[in-house]
Amino acid sequence: MQITDLQNLITVEDIKKAVPEKDLMHIAFDDTTLSISNEKIQNAINISVKKLFTKLIKCEKVALEDWEIEIAKLYLIKDAIYQLHTMNETESLAQDKLIEARQILKDWLGDCGKEEPKKITSVKVVKYEPKYKF
After folding, report:
1. How far apart are CA 60 and CA 112, in angstroms?
2. Angstrom distance (rounded) from CA 44 to CA 49
């Protein structure tokens, strides 16, 4: 399976149909064109596709069967909506979408689909010792 296979499952229009227009104006508004930004929506889709692709690779799923395509599409729509809210810093308004997306993965992929990637922050402390002492 290629990542492009997943990218072809949903379009910007699918997201526009899934979100009421007034809400879409809040989360995907472009200040320069004064309209809904297809680019912002596509960026959210791309993030969701990458997340799903990573999970499928982890679960050693090399191809989607016909019945799995609709499940993958539903997951991508829910997660892309959540990603739009995240980009707009209003993710608390879309917690239900995140919970639904995670539940879809858990039901579909079992235990390997329930984990979220862990955010790792590393800090390296360097002690500076001057070459010359004064």
Report:
1. 9
2. 9
Contacts of 42 (CB under 8 A, 6+ apart): 12
| 7 Cβ neighbours under 8 A, 6+ residues apart | 45, 46, 49
The pLDDT confidence band at residue 13, using thresholds 50, 70 and 90, is very high
99: its two tokens = 């919970």
Global pTM?
0.76
**Which residues, in sequence order, are CB contacts of 88 under 8 Å at separation 6+?**
26, 27, 28
SS3 content of the chain, % helix, strand, coil (to 5): 65, 5, 35
In three-state secondary structure terms, 26 is helix
Task: Check residue 30 and report its DSSP letter.
Answer: E
